[in-house]
Design a protein that fits this description.
alpha/beta, about 210 residues, about 30% strand
Length: about 210
């Protein structure tokens, strides 16, 4: 499954702002939140609907409701930045959490927390992480979600690279990836280049 690169002009403007080193944390948050919403709208374009009847002040008419529940799964902690932007669009969605950190010496994922709901099997699940670098964290998170019953997973990330996309395609070919950019690759420390730095540090100002 090929990644979907969201190239809307406004999305690319928000991406440029969060790439810029001089962008302060409060502006980084604002642009990341807005970009997250655009990515989510694109990722949900084909979600199935069911018809419902709606009583307006004047008459009854047909409307629509999502066929399945939605579960957001941010990878802690940077994934919370995407959640902050997306959740206002679906305030009644369920929010799960997966804690995975990268071992800075080996660049391998280390899982330290998971809180997953029981309805993953019946839901559309959105895995959230600003960066898809080596793909280790995303692949491990998707593995945990599938083990807990998820069968419809979509990943949303701001910046990706060939290495991370290849890892996802190899281990989870059924998980579509929506991203605002595919960067050139990883440096010797496994950071995306040109990237945007450490998304978590820049979002939280730490």
């Amino acid at each position: 499954m090929q990644p979907v690169v969201v190239q809307h002009p406004l999305a690319q403007c928000h991406l440029a702002a969060i790439r810029a080193q001089e962008t302060p944390s409060h502006q980084f948050r604002r642009h990341l939140n807005l970009l997250a919403r655009m990515l989510f709208l694109e990722a949900t374009r084909e979600l199935p609907l069911r018809e419902i009847q709606v009583q307006t002040p004047l008459t009854q008419t047909s409307g629509a409701r999502l066929e399945r529940p939605v579960v957001f799964v941010p990878i802690l902690r940077a994934g919370l930045g995407l959640l902050d932007g997306i959740l206002p669009l679906m305030p009644d969605a369920t929010v799960a959490h997966v804690g995975i950190k990268r071992n800075e010496e080996t660049a391998l994922p280390q899982s330290y927390y998971a809180n997953l709901p029981a309805n993953l099997g019946s839901a559309d699940v959105f895995l959230l992480d600003p960066m898809l670098a080596t793909g280790g964290s995303a692949c491990e998170a998707a593995r945990q979600l599938k083990a807990a019953g998820a069968s419809r997973i979509t990943m949303i990330c701001v910046v990706s690279c060939p290495e991370g996309l290849a890892a996802m395609k190899r281990t989870h070919p059924d998980v579509p990836v929506f991203t605002a950019a595919i960067d050139q690759g990883l440096n010797e420390k496994c950071y995306i280049v040109p990237g945007l730095g450490d998304a978590g540090d820049r979002y939280f100002g730490t």
